[in-house]
């Protein structure tokens, strides 16, 4: 089977999945798309030139199926009904979970799929919607099946500028959670510094400019603080529940390997407090909660 004969399916057409699926179609792969929202499925299919899979079972003929869903529980529910396949895939089908999933649950889902001859790759992404649109996402790829990875990589390459092989199945999702913990810690620390500085009389934008020209520079300082905190737009496109979930996964991962992680515990508590108060808002609005604390 050559790359250009692969039939590809895509499940999850939200903030990230929409542009990611479009880039697969632009890459020349025959594509079927599906979302729990039937209207979104139809509209996306028409916009990008794909086939609308009204039911997930319509993805059964696909050679590679990509999922971009909020949680690993939803990934499993999309693929399995108990121990049985929800979608009657052919043996050898490659599942590519690009969601921010719990690595321990990914390993278990992979084991359940393997019992039916279905292969699994975890390939979570980093870069937010801007890089999803530009097809420049960073990919963290884990799998126990090198042949499955080789099948999936040409599809993944349509969405990314860099693919990092992280190890066995679940290591991609572990890396994504740890990356988002680091990003969340940087945002929380930057927000804490801005609040303290402003109360002392510093100008927040001047602080951000100095961070970005000094050792305090991070992705948060260069891409988030200015437009979404100082300018109060609070529209980064990354939801507070999703970031909180990822930081919790990192905390769970640390505990599973008997690693004392007080910083991760503190960051988790900071985001959980904001989430309890604010609900499902953009993650940058956590600043508003911390600001009044």
TrEMBL record:
It comes from the Bacteria. PROSITE patterns: 3_HYDROXYISOBUT_DH. Pfam families: NAD_binding_11 (PF14833), NAD_binding_2 (PF03446). The keyword GTP-binding does not apply. The keyword Transferase does not apply. GO terms for biological process: organic acid catabolic process. The active site is at 176. Transmembrane segments: none annotated. One of its GO terms (molecular function) is oxidoreductase activity, acting on the CH-OH group of donors, NAD or NADP as acceptor. InterPro entries: 3-OH-isobutyrate_DH-rel_CS, 6-PGluconate_DH-like_C_sf, 6PGD_dom2, 6PGDH_NADP-bd, HIBADH-like_NADP-bd, HIBADH-related, NAD(P)-bd_dom_sf. Keywords: NAD, Oxidoreductase. Residues 7-165 form the 6-phosphogluconate dehydrogenase NADP-binding domain. Residues 170-288 form the 3-hydroxyisobutyrate dehydrogenase-like NAD-binding domain. Belongs to the HIBADH-related family. This is NAD(P)-dependent oxidoreductase. It comes from Microbacterium faecale.
